[in-house]
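can u do me a favor
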């Protein structure tokens, strides 16, 4: 996921719900999601900085850091490394409040894996041109 806004640039590469991603990987590989494989300090750090741990559905600017932001999400729908299902709940619930200048656009490209395609680059350039530079 990549998020960009004009007042201050925010780039969020990867999965906005990192805990869901690594919990799923642990389950898929039969690795316990507990120490020593998942140290408490690492879990605490992720909980402090993971976008999905914020109040991203709130309409309050005090609680939701994404209000008024311009967010573009591009993902391969068939990505085996960062599956779209790990981002979908966050992206669907993400409130950017369009009345306060927020923009949210999400595209999961069918048949695309863990790749950045020419179509994605074109979409990103168009989004930046329309919503950041305009």
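np, heres the sequence
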């Amino acid at each position: 996921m990549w998020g960009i806004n004009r007042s201050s640039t925010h780039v969020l590469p990867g999965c906005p719900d990192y805990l869901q991603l690594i919990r799923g990987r642990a389950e898929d590989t039969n690795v316990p999601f507990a120490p020593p494989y998942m140290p408490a300090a690492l879990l605490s750090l992720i909980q402090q900085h993971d976008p999905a741990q914020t109040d991203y559905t709130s309409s309050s600017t005090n609680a939701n850091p994404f209000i008024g932001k311009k967010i573009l999400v591009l993902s391969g729908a068939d990505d085996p490394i960062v599956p779209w299902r790990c981002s979908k709940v966050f992206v669907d619930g993400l409130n950017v409040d369009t009345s306060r200048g927020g923009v949210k656009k999400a595209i999961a490209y069918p048949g695309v894996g863990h790749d950045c395609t020419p179509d994605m680059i074109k979409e990103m350039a168009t989004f930046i041109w329309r919503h950041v530079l305009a």
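Strands lie at 2-3, 70-76, 103-109. hope that helps!!
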